[in-house]
Amino acid sequence: MPHSIVTDVCEGVADCAQACPIGCIQHGKGKNKKGTDFFWINFETCIDCGICLQVCPVQGAVVAEERSDLQQTCQDSD
Questions:
Q1: Confidence bin at 76 (pLDDT 50/70/90)
Q2: Per-residue pLDDT tens for 5-61?
Q3: Which residues lie closer than 8 Å to 13 by C-beta, 6 or more apart?
Q4: Domains (ranges, CATH) in the chain?
């Protein structure tokens, strides 16, 4: 099962995007409710490796399940 980035917790650090071995983490458009940049995980390509969970310095920004209710995508934020 893919992981999710909690949009309103994400602070745009990008450690997850840089560490992802398949490049399924992408920069979102606009800002989240905190006014910071955010990233999102493509559920269709995530291989559930868990690296994003290990490298993210922001507690609670990545959850180990697919949660479209917590994660905006670039399409959601237009």
A1: low
A2: 999 999 999 999 999 999 999 999 999 999 999 999 999 999 999 999 999 999 999
A3: 56, 57, 58
A4: 1-68 (3.30.70.20)
Enter the pTM of the model.
Answer: 0.90
Helices then strands (H, E): number in the chain? 2, 4
Burial of 49 (0-12, 13-18, 19+ CB in 10 A): middle
Tokens describing residue 66:
């697919």
- How far is the C-alpha of 5 from the C-alpha of 33, rounded, in Å? 14
Cα 2 from Cα 30, distance rounded (Å): 23
27: left (phi over 0), alpha (psi -120 to 50) or beta: beta
How deeply is 66 buried, as exposed, middle or buried, from its count of CB atoms within 10 A (0-12, 13-18, 19+)?
middle
